Amino acid sequence: MKTLYLDCGMGAAGDMLTAALVELLPDPDIFIKKINALGIPGVKITKEKSVKCGITGTHIEVTVNGISEDEHIYGHDHDHHHEHGHDHEHEHSHEHAHNHSHHHGSIHEIEHIVLGHLQIPENVKKDILAVYSLIAEAESAVHGVPVSEIHFHEVGSMDALADVAAVCLLMDEIKPDKIVASPVHVGSGQVKCAHGILPVPAPATAFILKGIPCFGGKIKGELCTPTGAALLKYFVSSFGEMPVMSVNTIGYGMGKKDFEAANCVRAMLGESEGKTGFISELSCNVDDMTAEEIGFAIEKLFEAGAKEAYTVPIGMKKGRPGTLISVLCAEDDENKMAELLFKHTTTIGVRQAKMRRFVLDREERNVNTPFGSVRIKHSSGYGVDKNKPEYDDLVSLANNLGVSIFEAKKLLEKNI
């Protein structure tokens, strides 16, 4: 399957993720023209070659009404306002620090721009607003005010919007089947703001990164921004070591500042196998249980978390018919399942085998159809891509339309 791996060993910011993903495209300049043609108020994006610790990559520069992000920090007094409520200075990439003289806008104004003015696919609009929701939720929790009262600085919100829109569009163009990222380096120390000194990671960043593997270190500075954290949380399906994959393209997205390590996000795009793993099989043979007793035992196994439990008719010694009872479970559940087999069956011995299994990536989607919302099970990997309606929804549709389940399935296939 097409797999995207993001190396966040030096953190992540919106502009750095944009730059890394841009380098994966056959013609990055075409994408830069496309993002500039969106009509984000006052925004212009340019890319330039950047070298960090001997590594050549791309740096993305965002200007709003002709003013660069660095000028927002250094061209005015430092009472600037972070785009999502923090007033701190970004040491990592200077992604979103701004002149305080501009007025502020609400989350509803961002929604108005995205929904009403950007000529982009509807799914990308949804992605952009979902990323903003993560940031707004974090700011709401940190500042103790409702999401509706969170305000974004006008200039800051536009370069932030450019970063978020660019990454969402890039993900839509690249269309990876799976996105994996390394644990996120957040930096260390403190960062100055207009109202005092904040710890690194900044409170909003720390809130967004809850549940995500991250670490500090000896590098002083803010390496992961709220925007970078939100983009990772929204798009990345798992965090950990680089999976086994055949890499085809590599992109380096550079930050502005220089550190002792290369200040970049590295994106690696290639092919990986579907999920593999191990599962335990426990089994036993019985020839002195009724069908009802066996059915009760199977129910208890499922209730305890068995991934699968089933029976097979077998012939046993002395020509007696019997039943093979098998249960598949996680390795950690072996003892529990063995105890249940002994408790609810007549067996005096249980066999155990460790099995390797190949698994498709699976997710459930809600799809709107002319017949209403239907849950679809989507499976992909190993060169296949499958969609299957949820059985209960299929039955409900068949009953509502007065048709067979086969006809209901055909109707859905035409409208999915």
General description of the model:
It is elongated, with a radius of gyration of 27 Å. 34% of the residues lie in helices and 33% in strands. Residues 71-104 have low confidence and may be disordered. The chain is built from 12 helices and 23 strands. The longest helix has 22 residues, at 122-143. It has helices at residues 14-22, 28-36, 69-74, 107-117, 122-143, 154-174, 203-208, 226-235, 291-303, 334-344, 391-401, 405-415; strands at residues 2-7, 43-52, 55-64, 67-68, 104-106, 151-153, 178-181, 184-185, 187-188, 190-193, 196-199, 214-215, 221-222, 238-239, 245-254, 264-272, 275-286, 308-315, 321-329, 351-359, 361-369, 372-381, 384-389.
Low-confidence stretches: 71-104
Shape: elongated
Strand content: 25-35%
Radius of gyration: 27 Å
Question: Can you describe this structure in just a few lines?
Answer:
The chain is an alpha+beta fold and 416 residues long. It contains 12 helices and 23 strands.
